[in-house]
Amino acid sequence: MNREKVRILLAQDDTSETIDVLRLLFPDTTGGLDLTVVSVTTLIPTIKTTDPELILLDLEFGLADPFDAVRLVHRSAPGIPLVVLADPAQKQQAAQSLREGAMDYVLKGFIDARSLGRVLRTALERNTFEGLADLLRDPMTGLYSREGLLTLGARFQEEARRTGGGIVLICALFENLDMLREGFGPGAADNALRDVAQILVTSCRRSDLVSRLGHAQFAVLAVDAVAPSAAFMRQRLERLLTVHNRQRSPWGPIDLRLSVGTWSAKDARNFSDFLDEVEVDLRLAHARDERGPLVIGSAVRS
Question: pLDDT grade, residue 128 (50/70/90)?
Fold first, then answer.
């Protein structure tokens, strides 16, 4: 039985190492590889004409700012998984590329079937690269999904443990989403979800990760952060929400309840356990009504 070849777009000057490994991963006996190698000037047009299932992009791909190409590809094809290739000396920049839209990164000189295969494993298990994009991004808001936050959060936690850094996690519950849906219809509820997403993104640094964890729950992960910064992050979020509720919300205030957790390099919890604990705190606070929602004109109880 004939199998379709895997369509991969490779944006790299020195391609020999990468091509050899890709051919090992996708031999002709299992369908084979449909590989397109591009230059910096033809990158975006080629994405549109070849419709790749995966894009591999070298950080040294001919642009002064190493992240310009990452942003350009992500804006042009947000649904296509993007994997960054980087020199070992660029590891920090490679990690930052995940916040600019890349799905993962691989260090050059260490590109073998195991390392690159690990990056592609989730996509192969789902039998489609588009499935991986759906897994990592929430289609309603464009934020990372729960799986996306778990995937990237674990990687950032590993880096923070290595460097002695810290992490701040804010979980937010959109308490009156169902009321908005019942009172104003699904369109208003969807717009309110997007508003919450924008408020969270605006309140964060570019390096922070924002995700939609579920129906009405969101999270902000601040990397390279310490416990005292949690209060500042919360205050900024509260101010932006207050302004939104006064000036922009056509259906009444958006009510958010917040729970904040911090993690340091000496903490034994893995990222999944850390996220679970902050979520539990949020649900318990909601059940006990220990903290009132953030509503225009009301005091915020902590």
Answer: very low
> What phi, psi does 125 have (nearest 5°)?
-65, -35
Any domain includes 212: yes
Residue 228 half-sphere exposure toward CB, CA atoms < 13 A: 0
C-beta of residue 150 within 8 angstroms of C-beta of residue 144: no
Where helices occur in the chain by DSSP H, the ranges are: 16-25, 43-50, 68-76, 91-97, 113-126, 129-136, 146-163, 177-184, 186-203, 228-247, 271-288
CATH of residue 219: 3.30.70.270
pLDDT tens digits for 144-193? 888 888 888 887 888 788 788 888 999 999 988 888 888 888 888 899 99
User: Residues 82, 169: one domain?
Assistant: no
pLDDT of residue 180: 86
- Two structure tokens written together for 188: 């208003």
298 within some domain: no
Q: Report how far apart, in Å, the C-alpha atoms of 140 and of each of 38, 120, 219 are.
A: 32, 25, 15
Q: Which long-range contacts (CB under 8 A, 24 or more apart) does 266-270 make?
A: 270/154, 270/157
H/E stretch holding 55 reads strand 54-58
Residue 301 clears pLDDT 60, i.e. is over it: no
Q: Which of 223, 208, 215 is nearest to 193 (CA)?
A: 215
Spatial CA neighbour of 177 closest among 164, 166, 191: 191
